[in-house]
Write a structure and sequence with these properties.
Helix content: over 70%
Strand content: under 5%
Largest sheet: 2 strands, antiparallel
Strand order of the largest sheet: 1-2
Number of strands: 2
Number of helices: 6
Structural class: mainly alpha
Order of helices and strands: HEEHHHHH
Radius of gyration: 25 Å
């Protein structure tokens, strides 16, 4: 009970620190704009320098506006949208690569006792991952509150952009969480299959099976993240691309904790 209470207090302290930092950052950004404007006016009045218009918007990448990609060409005349569509095809191939290796590992020979142990490890990791997911959703409530205060009240973003940031933070969490689930499943496949293959006394299967598992997880992770980013670039209006990227980055980083912690848990049990 004391540990839970200490954890809640630590989380609240972290959120309050984040709020203080964001508020300071917003105030500093506003002060920089005012100082630069005053300096430019003074320089123009004294004739010592030419006035330079400096415009700074707080919020960073949330103010990013994506231009019309169909108006630009690359690699000798390929439109930007066509090039990104090709990227979606490559991402689909990456997803297929990961799923093919998943099927190969699942169909490999394994001793019944080793299979039983690996399934027990998977069920333990699954329970842990579900618990971790619930905690991340609770933490997302606090993170969402910080997003609402910073972008909605301090930076005066319109409600639609704030809602998009919140929505894509959930998308980022779902992407990382799904890859974590795939990772613990294929790793437990690889553990039992590698153990059974080692009984033959040949070193190559003991090397290739874990390698296939790692390659499939890495390829799936990259492909999932790129698909979401390409979707934002291709199908979201340019004015809203910045908030989408910010929300996705927040959620993906938060969800990555599940990938790391659940992965370490699976390795420790193995």
């Amino acid at each position: 009970m004391n540990r839970k209470f200490a954890g809640v207090v630590s989380t609240l302290a972290l959120i309050l620190s984040a709020l203080a930092f964001l508020a300071t950052r917003a105030a500093t950004a506003q002060g920089v704009v005012e100082n630069r404007t005053d300096s430019a006016i003074a320089a123009a009045a004294t004739g010592t320098a030419q006035p330079v218009a400096v415009e700074h918007k707080a919020g960073g990448e949330a103010n990013l506006v994506i231009p019309d990609l169909s108006q630009v060409s690359f690699l000798g005349g390929i439109h930007g949208r066509s090039l990104l569509m090709g990227g979606l095809v490559i991402c689909a191939l990456g997803l297929l690569f990961g799923l093919v290796f998943y099927g190969q590992l699942k169909r490999m020979a394994v001793h019944s006792s080793m299979l039983e142990i690996s399934e027990l490890i998977y069920e333990t990791c699954k329970t842990y991952l579900i618990t971790q997911g619930k905690f991340i959703l609770i933490l997302e409530v606090f993170i969402g509150f910080v997003i609402l205060l910073y972008f909605g009240f301090l930076l005066k973003f319109e409600p639609m952009k704030v809602a998009i940031i919140l929505l894509f933070s959930l998308v980022g969490i779902a992407g990382s969480y799904g890859v974590a689930w795939f990772g613990i499943r294929i790793n437990t496949f690889a553990n039992s299959r590698t153990a059974f293959a080692s009984l033959r006394g040949k070193p190559f299967p003991c090397y290739s099976i874990p390698l296939k598992s790692g390659m499939s997880i890495g390829m799936l992770l990259i492909s999932v993240e790129l698909v979401i980013m390409l979707f934002i670039l291709l199908f979201i209006p340019g004015d809203y691309a910045g908030p989408c990227f910010i929300g996705f980055a927040i959620g993906e980083s938060l969800g990555a904790a599940a990938v790391r912690i659940a992965g370490e848990h699976a390795l420790n049990l193995s």
